[in-house]
Hints:
By secondary structure, this protein is mainly β. It is built from 5 helices and 68 strands. The strands form 17 sheets. The chain has a 5-stranded antiparallel sheet with strand order 4-33-34-35-36. A 4-stranded antiparallel sheet has the order 5-6-7-8, with no helix packed on it. A 4-stranded antiparallel sheet has the order 9-10-11-12, with no helix packed on it.
Amino acid sequence: xxxxxxxxxxxxxxxxxxxxxxxxxxxxxxxxxxxxxxxxxxxxxxxxxxxxxxxxxxxxxxxxxxxxxxxxxxxxxxxxxxxxxxxxxxxxxxxxxxxxxxxxxxxxxxxxxxxxxxxxxxxxxxxxxxxxxxxxxxxxxxxxxxxxxxxxxxxxxxxxxxxxxxxxxxxxxxxxxxxxxxxxxxxxxxxxxxxxxxxxxxxxxxxxxxxxxxxxxxxxxxxxxxxxxxxxxxxxxxxxxxxxxxxxxxxxxxxxxxxxxxxxxxxxxxxxxxxxxxxxxxxxxxxxxxxxxxxxxxxxxxxxxxxxxxxxxxxxxxxxxxxxxxxxxxxxxxxxxxxxxxxxxxxxxxxxxxxxxxxxxxxxxxxxxxxxxxxxxxxxxxxxxxxxxxxxxxxxxxxxxxxxxxxxxxxxxxxxxxxxxxxxxxxxxxxxxxxxxxxxxxxxxxxxxxxxxxxxxxxxxxxxxxxxxxxxxxxxxxxxxxxxxxxxxxxxxxxxxxxxxxxxxxxxxxxxxxxxxxxxxxxxxxxxxxxxxxxxxxxxxxxxxxxxxxxxxxxxxxxxxxxxxxxxxxxxxxxxxxxxxxxxxxxxxxxxxxxxxxxxxxxxxxxxxxxxxxxxxxxxxxxxxxxxxxxxxxxxxxxxxxxxxxxxxxxxxxxxxxxxxxxxxxxxxxxxxxxxxxxxxxxxxxxxxxxxxxxxxxxxxxxxxxxxxxxxxxxxxxxxxxxxxxxxxxxxxxxxxxxxxxxxxxxxxxxxxxxxxxxxxxxxxxxxxxxxxxxxxxxxxxxxxxxxxxxxxxxxxxxxxxxxxxxxxxxxxxxxxxxxxxxxxxxxxxxxxxxxxxxxxxxxxxxxxxxxxxxxxxxxxxxxxxxxxxxxxxxxxxxxxxx
Length: 883
């Protein structure tokens, strides 16, 4: 039900203000709101309420309709089935009655035909004469059934999101590069900009929308170069160990080539060849330019000649010549430019002049001149045909690391370690202007085809667009410049608010995003350290943010201004929740406390203590309770009495048995306890205490599910699963036992060290063999049973990859700083077991379903059934590829 957006007003709205983000207004508040606009002389439009479904809501609506249609069809089948059963019962009664009446008819007809009667028949005849047969009306019980009664169960509106759901559900990438942006290229049609970074990603940006479109991950190496093919079909990126070709149309990796110390890579103008540098450390003659066919992935030629690291490479527009530049701080002092004949596959010329390493090259469109930038602070122009220097451009006070020429060869743009962008008149060979807003090295520059705008990237993690006509900074690309820690979505799915920044991060911003227009709405600045959590009030009046700076800040959602600062926590604020009336807020912190705040008075009301570790997440229920979760425990608090109601330990995965019915878990807060749960029966089978005094290395279970095998440094203990008594202790054989594992129900394998391996016979309590040379234990790889999928995970996310299509199959996550306590792959089917610490959830890869199969506490299970807010503590699906 809609409610007026005015503070504390609970009346039903009748109109909305289209100039204030669709603010809902009741009859009384319309006048006050209109007066505010008129007093400030701000135009306004009060119109009818129109609520547009977001993409996510549209998807959920279709899914809900499909589920409802299915329920209706099932109800129809049930009615028909029950009516048929009722019909069968009636049919039996009728049949029996007709048979009885037919029997009576026969009896009366037989008597009527007789002339002489035996005694028995005579009595019947006299009785018939004396009696009159009368039947009652047929009596069927009245059928009074309600066949279409139904109930509507309200779904919980989970608004805690992540950068991944923002990407896949809203097509909005809010997290940009997180480390220095070192490379830049622009497409020939000026639509796209490509950047490469030390964060091991290549990102495609829409220059018109100023938004990210694609993120390509290299995973292991920093990006050393990026370029775009002339037809904008391919992106070519290089890192230290690989060159990758990305298909821009299909948004996938097209090819990859591996080498060593790659500093630069480009593609020929006809998309036939990839040219890249390789700088081996074996010797000076191992530095080479490699030409490789993109069609058949074969080597064409390796061009050798440089005796120092090759830093950059370029190709003429007619694909006739390759030009390379080299140099480093080594003693070889090869600060040369070399021209290679691509047709004849040989070196054409060596040009000298720079006194230090050459970092960048650019060739004019007529293929007559090449421009080079160097660590000697100069830019030099060379004649390719005459192989001689034309001029030297001086002005930078530190090394020149990036240069680009305009399409008409009238302008030259350079970026330098001195943090400046300089624009040069290439015809007159003189500096025209410079831009000074970057705070670190300018690593890449580009210019649009109309010579109106310059784009620059820097180690300060910014992408800036400069207007050449007024020589001013025009704008920056919209994205966080550090890890995004939190995202929250308004209940109308129109806006999202995100916070970013690690400890002592430069990016301490809170950004408001318009999910309809896919644009950045506002940037809120005020925190002195990274932002860890964000919450939005139900009436969209306030935003609350928590930070590494120990504070909670209150922001006005309409005005986008800071309204207050809540101080009290002595550690980073990890989570915030606002109650439905928007009067109270609850926060959890690294100081192991939960605090309740009054948002009207902007004061702390109470401090709740009970956690033994950092509080990662908090939530408020609909029954005057709040819950909080840390690494060790889950606690429910009473908001009225301000007391602790329930405290439960969180359990970690250890392993499961062969038929995946028995799960063994332990608690990080109680190292002396192991819990055994039966997934099928959904009950606890065993509880072992007070034995983990020595260091436990491993746990396993025999195939018959009867014995639990515990491996310690100095011993192996075997216990019955259904009993807490110790059955057998195997003392170590001189050396320490590193782990124990089952072979079968009669034998136990124990690894005593990295090199020794032994088998123990449980039947006769003797060692069977002592094997030498056994290597370190290999951890199980997370491949599915049919090897079609591979699963990768960290504390907060689980990704399922399709090995055949090389695409992401599914993305699962826990929100609001909650960590997975274990992830395991089923060996019986394509399924993943996920432990949230509160229970076990199962994701079926084939069926694309996520079921919460088991809770470790029955009271908790009941609470989850009646309280939607607890859903935040369970695994969720962010994305599924249903193809």
